[in-house]
Structure formats: structure tokens, C-alpha cells
Design brief:
This protein has two domains: about 1-155 and about 190-215, Rossmann fold, CATH 3.40.50.720; about 165-190 and about 220-265 and about 285-340, no CATH class. Helices cover about 35% and strands about 20% of the residues. By secondary structure, it is an alpha/beta fold.
Amino acid sequence: MKLLIIGGSIFLGRHLVTEALRKNHEVWIFNRGQSGPIPSPVCHVLQGNRESQSDLKKLSTMKFDAVIDTCGYVPRVVRTGLEILKDIAPHYLFASTISVYANPLANADETSPLMTSSDPQSEDVQKHYGGLKVLCENAVRTYFPNRNTNVRLGFLVGPYDRIYRLPYWLERLAAGGEVIAPGNPSDPFQCIDIRDAAAWMVLCAEKKIAGDFNVTGHVLPLGNLLNTCNQTLGDKAQLTWIPHSFLRDQGITAFDEIPYNISDEERGAVQISIAKALANGLTFRSLTETICDTHAWLAKEGFSVIAKAGEKIKARISRARELEILESYNKISNLHIAHKF
């Protein structure tokens, strides 16, 4: 298979390239060459900006068996590419997100109501991320009718992670001591190893599997994830589970300040149905393998802070603030215990 990957050098794209080459496909990458090194010297590289029609026209005389778009966020930009790409390949895979769902409930499937943008002309990805992805999906369907795969990805984890969530937990737990864990260990959670997502997307390109698909992991208790991380790192840390209400009172609201701090109101987004993808060949490696491999990558290379929308991704709760909250919570917990006797 001759495969074109738009993007292809950071996280999802890197693993798509690796998987496609592992299966002996001919891999071409189209990107600006600014976000990271090319994952393999075996790749064919076309340097260009997807917003530039003159750059995109480099592709117009070529033919591919499938296109995988890893970095489409703005409908106008996606449509610019689709105008040319519609004639060079029979199938188009688009990396979308479970954030397209308006108010996902537990077991929400691909027919659940989607986001609508309050400002359809806005290109503010941070403000309208889910709504813009919906419009991008619509554009893909328009230009590749019945020849498209919209892959609605959940939390992605694994080596070369560009967002400081699982890497936060691995580094924080490795440091040891008492650690805030958000909510309750039984709280449901979903994530998928990036390599399993990439393998399934390459499978879709091979078999021309079309449609909309939720692609994330099986639902598991958040405690399983954090305890497995801790055990893998030698049980150096003591997890103290603090209710969301207490964290809110302490000013901790965004789940990125303490990664995976997901409120009860938002928890439907991590209980998404993946039955359709499972029926079409989605498989998973073990959680332990994901954690071990991610930790090995961190130990070897370290987490690279990447600027995103002018802010540093690696902006997390400080150790001093964490200790303040733990002290406050433990005082209250000890008082409650004392009152029982």
C-alpha cells in the first residue's frame, strides 16, 4: 500500500509511520518539517504547508492508496487540502476526537449528538475544539463520500507522548512520597496506547474500513491505572485519594492541573462505547506494557516541553501546592476519624 500521512513526526504520526513501515507499506509524509525529526529515513518526505495551495499541488500528480490526516483542526484548512486530495486517493482517514460529542453519557456510541459551534466562523481551536472537529469531519464526508474514516480518539498514551498527563504520573510517582490522586479509585477511565490506535488506523487504510469510530480503551477504574504505574515504578509513592469537591474548594478544577482529574459531570467522556471499533479489528496490548514502555522512553529521553497555543504544556501543580492541599485534607480526615470514637 502506498500511504500518505499528513503530519507524521510528533506522536500519532510517528507511530503511524512506524506501524505502516513494519507492515512493509510505502510511506510518504507531507508536513512543514518544523515539529520534529522524521521518524524513519525510509520515509519519503514532501515538505509543505497544508494551508498553501502551491505546496499542496506537489501532491496533485501523485496517487496513493489512502491518506491519513493527523493534524486537521480548522475546517477551512482541511477543506483546502481536500480539494486536491480527493483526486489522488480512494480513501481518507481523519484523526478526530471524542470531544465531538455534545454531552456524552456512559456508553455513548457514534450516533450520539455532536457539538455545535456557537461561532461557526471562529478558528479558535482552544475555545471551539470539539465543534471545529465536527465541521472537519463533515468536510471529509463531503469530499470522500462513503470513502472516509473519522477516528474519534480518546486519551492517547505511550512513548513520545506530547502532552504531560501520563508522563506526569510516571515522573511524580517515581519521585515518591504522598501524592494527590483525584476523586475515587473506582472512578471509570479510558485511555489507549497510541501504538494500538495507530495499528488500527493502518488496518482501516488497508481494508478501506469506512465510517465514524470511537477509538479508545476499555473502561477501567482510574485506581487500576495509577496503582499499576506505582507498582511498576517500585511502589515508591503513597496515593491519597481526595474528592473532587475538596479539590474544587482548593481551586483545583482543570483536569490538566492534576491529570485525569475529571469531574463527575464530565465522566461520560471516559465511558465511551468502542463496540464498533472492536467489531472491526481494534485490539490492545496490556496496560503494564504501555506503562513500562512509556517509562523507558521517559528515562532515556525525558519529556520535551512543546509550546501549544502560546502556553507550556508542562504546567502542573507544584509540589509545594500539593503538600499544602494534602496537609489540609489530612487534617480534616483526621478530625472525622477522631469524631467517630
